Amino acid sequence: MTFKITLLPGDGIGPEVVAEAVRVLDFIASKYNHTFNFTERLMGGCSIDKYNSSLTDETLADCQSADAVLLGAVGGPKWDDPAAKDRPERGLLALRKGLGVFANLRPVKVHPALMEWSPLKPEKLQGVDILVVRELTGGLYFGWPKGRDIKDGRERAVDTLEYYDYEIKRVMELAFKLAKGRRKKVTSVDKANVLESSRLWRQIATEVGAENKDVELEHMLVDTTSMRLITDPAWMDVVVTENMFGDILTDEASILAGSMGMLPSASLGESTVGLFEPIHGSAPDIAGKGIANPIGTILSTAMLLRHSLKLEAEAVVIEKAVEQTITAGARTTDIGGKLTTRQMADEIIKRI
Ligand code: NAD
């Protein structure tokens, strides 16, 4: 089969890890007789430098016409000025909006051989297999009004937490659908004791739960969830929550796995064009050294094959190869080894 994949390597270690993920995809293409046509575009800080825009219309159009988009990471100290009129993160938000991806999926699993790299005790990590589903296009990051003004002689800042019923329903339905292929348990996270938007969230979760009785639904306050993630993470299966709670909880969940470099993510919407990226940032402290862990990006390509290209067998082959590679003791520096980015990818490709 033939597919078009847009690559947005971005800034910092983004190009280093995306290059290795492309080698993995090329290997899959030759092994399974597919053709992946890659188009590479600038996005983030590098795009600001060249085009004065973190995401140009042409790049967005190219992404929209692809079967899937693979992103490295964007940002870095060079573009951190809060007063700048464009920032790399703006491009990311515009890309998510432009692709209509409303759910970010972050699977968190802890490989037994890497438990020592997690800040939690090994006994807490046995059986951890969580899928966090974060709502991506609503809530505080997009609500209006937003901004600063002077009111009653005081400087004031406003953000608005707004959700429509349909925005909650579609992400909730996706969470239940995903739970059916897993341990059939959904934890819906909110702050319904305080926030009106959370009360609507809980109401819709209950309604969707009533239509999916084969899946167990529990409601949990976000503060309780943040504690349970540390004290008893193995108890969670699918966790679904709104944009900002998800932003915070997904980072908390990701440290369970030991290194930011290990975890993939997928952002999905109504269409099959998904956005796939590792959960880590551009890691300016190690950029250009060739030592970044490529596993998060390589596992993101597995999610790309599964969710956008519907190539389940190929996705599983990559995931198994990564698992075997870790079991065999291959390690980049972030997980206590000496392998370079390229060498780690070689180890994985060898096992595919
Ligand atoms: P980061 O994830 O870039 O780095 C945090 C720490 O983890 C660093 O010590 C880094 O060296 C390490 N690390 C991250 N990925 C690694 C990998 N693959 N292999 C080995 N070590 C790895 O987070 P940060 O330092 O807070 O942010 C740096 C920049 O990235 C900022 O400009 C931030 O805005 C941006 N950022 C971008 C995204 C994105 O593109 N989606 C996400 C988060 C942060």
Walk me through what this model shows.
This protein is an alpha/beta fold and about 350 residues long. The protein folds into 2 domains: about 1-100 and about 275-350, Isopropylmalate Dehydrogenase, CATH 3.40.718.10; about 120-255, Isopropylmalate Dehydrogenase (3-Layer(aba) Sandwich). The chain is about 40% helix and about 20% strand. The protein is built from 12 helices and 12 strands. It has helices at about 15-30, 45-50, 55-65, 90-100, 120-125, 165-180, 195-210, 220-230, 245-255, 295-305, 310-325, 340-350, and strands at about 1-10, 35-40, 70-75, 100-110, 130-135, 145-150, 155-160, 185-190, 215-220, 240, 265-270, 275-280. Strands 2-1-3-12-11-4-5-10-8-9 form a 10-stranded mixed sheet, with helices on both faces. The chain is globular, with a radius of gyration of 20 Å. The chain starts with a strand and ends with a helix. The site of nicotinamide-adenine-dinucleotide has 21 residues, from loops.
